[in-house]
Structures are given as C-alpha cells and as structure tokens.
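Hi support team,

I submitted a single chain yesterday and got back a structure, but I'm not sure I'm reading the token output correctly. Could someone confirm the output below corresponds to the sequence I sent? I've pasted both exactly as they appear in my results page.

Thanks,
R.
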Amino acid sequence: MVAGITDEQWALFENEGFLRLGKVMDDDELTGLQQRIDDIMLGNVKVYDQMFMQLDSESGDYSEKRITTRGHRVSTLNYRKIQDLEFDSLFLSYMQKPVFREICARAYGPETPISCYRAMFMNKPAGKGTHLPWHQDRFSILDTDPIVTVWTALDQVTVENGCVGIVPRSHRATFDQDESASFAFLTDEQAAVVLARERHEYLEMEAGEAALLHNWLLHGSGMNKTEASRRGFSVCYMDAATRSETGANFSVIFGEGALTPGTL
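Hi R., thanks for writing in. Yes, this is the structure output for that exact sequence:
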C-alpha cells in the first residue's frame, strides 16, 4: 500500500493535475467501508440525521430533479450521493490516514489545520447512474477555492461502469462560471472542443485504489452499463480557515479540534 508521497510524485501532480495513488487500504478496510455504506443506504445502522442523502434519478440526466433529504429516507441501494460521512467513524478513520495528512501538508502548509468541504459517497447503481458533465470543482459558496480531492474506488471502476474521466493539465486555467452555480460546467460545445483538442483519459482503478485530483481538473463520468454497482468515496480537503458565504466553518480533519472516531 502507498506509504507516502515523494517529491517526484508531487511534482507530477502539480504538472498534470492528478496522481494515481494506488492501493490505499487493506482488504479488511475495504470490506468494512463497502459494508458500512450499504448499511447506511439500507438503514441497517444508526440514522445519521445530519447526512445529506440523494436518490438516483430514473433517467440518468444530471439536470433531472432528485429526491434529497437530511437523514435516511428509504431502504435502497439506489442512492446517488451521501455527504457528511466525516461523521461516520469508519469513514473518518480512513480520511485521517497519514498519507492524506501528508498530501494536505504539501498542498496547504505543514502547520495548517485542515477541514473538509465534503466527504461524499458517489454511487452509480447497477444499470443506472447519472451522467456527470465535464466540469471543474470550484465552489462559489466558499471564500477560498480548495485545491485537493482524494477519490477512492470502493468497487472496481471501469469505463463501462462510469469511472471518472479527466483532462490532464486542465487545472492550469479556469472556465467561466455562473456565480449562482456550485461548479464550472462546460457546455456540450465547449466539451467537444476541449476533448477534440486535448488529451483525456479515464481513471480505471481496482477496488481500494485512489487518485489525487486538483479541484480545477476537468472531469466527468458516464452512466453504469454493467450489472454491478460502481461505488466511490470523494473527500475534498481544504484549509480550515475557509468559510462559506454565510461565515460557517467546516469539520476539522487534521489539527486542533479535529474530529475523532471515538467521540463521534
């Protein structure tokens, strides 16, 4: 398993906007996270009232309105997205691995306290899933743009089941963004031009592997055309001094006042 990040790897990340981290957990950790997220979806564990839970749509169209609640709504494996997983002890323990602390230290400074904007399960249920258009993660409600996201495969991810596609080096510039939007989405016309002109690839990974992504890296994903789920866990780490437009702060992951699995 990956134990740390070398200077050469960090230079590659800064140049390309992404870095394959390889396997970041052992088989027992993977099985535990797989079972925990299924239990959360099925309502087999404590209901986390603060968690944002969104069901997948029937059409797979990103623009279609989806049923979204705080806390558990219905027992199904067809949730598209579950946020606030830093309040689950197993997911928090994973988020606080030393390799992720090292990544944050390189990105934000070794003494900088770190919070997370979102700790988010992303799911493409068997034969379903939502098409996610090409975009950059630039969050208009924050006073400072976060830099890094770690995306972890909880299942094998392939082009067929909707793995993440990326455009290397696209983090070097930003695209116009509607100030009311959470993300900088490309129009279909913009995406066609970029994909015809720039190298792009797909982050196929085995279960238990992860990738480090610069938040401005153009990325997107397709629908799941297979008979098995495509589960992933995405964590956006940021400087804990970051505030929302309302002045709210976010859960501390590393540093003074950090959450701990034993006291959740």
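A quick pointer for reading it: The two ends are 28 Å apart (CA to CA). Let us know if anything else looks off.

Best,
Support desk
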